[in-house]
Write the structure tokens for this entry.
Amino acid sequence: MFGLFKKKSDDSPLRKHAERVANKRAQPLDRWEAIEALCKVGTSEAVAGLLPRFTFYVDPSITDQEEKDAAFDGIVRAGEAALEPVVAFLRKAESISWSVKILDRLVPGEQVVGHLVQLLSGMDIEYERDPQRKIQVLATLEERRDPRIAAAVARFLQDASEPVRFNAVGATLAQAEAAEHQSALVDCACAEESVRVRNRILDGFVAQKWRVDARRDELSKRLPAGYSLDASGAVQKR
């Protein structure tokens, strides 16, 4: 985030405040004063200096929350000037929660979804040691309704990570366009080793009252205990 300070001298007050905000071991009073100073400036550079405060925790918890709330309020007050650094932070931070929370205050919901879908487009479905960012994005999209979401998450039904597949199923089923991906969900259920993921797919079919046509015989052999297909191909849950 300090790249936004490149036009400032190394000893500028703005840079010094940003360094204090990002320093977990700084004295709480010094860090608080730096947060207040950057909040008053309200520029893109100042917002970039505030954002690292969301990347660490300090004791006591009340101090941690007060500092983060103050930084949040200052960033939101910066308005349009905050958008570029917040989106940049969204793309790089380990956790997306604060970025999304801020974006929800800065722009309409469809723009937030657009940023999340774009973030997801840069992720692949291969194995990775820690897929938490991918899981966070999918879980966030599950809470939103937008015609772009189902198509954007469809490929993650084949992800190497079971938790990713679980959240991809949830994000797909939450959308009005989920019906367009019935066959992909059936394919996933037929290939899926995780009972948890299969159950989530089947519960979605039960809720939507969907019928299984293609791969019906194959799916019937993969049904976990408590599920069945009736004569019409509808999934039943006992």
In short: The chain is about 60% helix and 5% strand. Residues 1-107 form one domain. The chain has a mean pLDDT of 94. The first strand starts at residue 227 and ends at 229.
